[in-house]
């Protein structure tokens, strides 16, 4: 069951995602929180911030990514942030609950990997010296 799958321009609330998938029958919950880090292997210097932008169809595509999973009885709440994010800001949250831990680990990883590969959300990486580059051009590109 998809509790929610959304693109957001406001800070993501990790506790909200955990609360959304909580259920009496759930014996396990897996949580992925992706944050902006201060470095990147391809950067020449330190990363200052990321500027995320999304294709207008990104919310629909995110829903179809999650809806298209062949999953056992799980609850999923996922959000991806857009806009300017500083180092340490939360860019993506994915919470998955189910009766057993094996299911939640597998589904959580699958959701996050598919979002990374298929969601048309792009990031401009800005370094402390002012240089920038576009990273992770997946999805509809």
Automatic annotation (TrEMBL):
Annotated InterPro entries: MoaE_sf (IPR036563), Mopterin_biosynth_MoaE (IPR003448)
One Pfam family recorded for the sequence: MoaE
CDD domains: MoaE
Protein name: Molybdopterin synthase large subunit MoaE
GO BP terms: Mo-molybdopterin cofactor biosynthetic process
Recorded name of the encoding gene: moaE
């Amino acid at each position: 069951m998809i509790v929610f799958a959304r693109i957001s321009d406001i800070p993501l609330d990790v506790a909200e995602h955990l609360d959304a998938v909580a259920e009496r029958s759930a014996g396990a919950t897996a949580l992925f929180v992706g944050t902006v880090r201060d470095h990147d292997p391809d950067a020449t210097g330190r990363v200052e911030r990321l500027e995320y932008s999304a294709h207008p169809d990104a919310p629909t595509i995110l829903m179809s990514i999650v809806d298209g999973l062949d999953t056992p009885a799980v609850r999923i709440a996922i959000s991806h942030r857009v806009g300017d994010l500083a180092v340490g800001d939360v860019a993506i949250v994915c919470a998955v609950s189910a009766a057993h831990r094996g299911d939640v680990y597998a589904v959580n990883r699958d959701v996050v990997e598919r979002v990374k590969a298929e969601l048309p959300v792009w990031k401009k990486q800005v370094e402390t010296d002012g240089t920038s580059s576009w990273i992770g051009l997946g999805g509809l590109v």
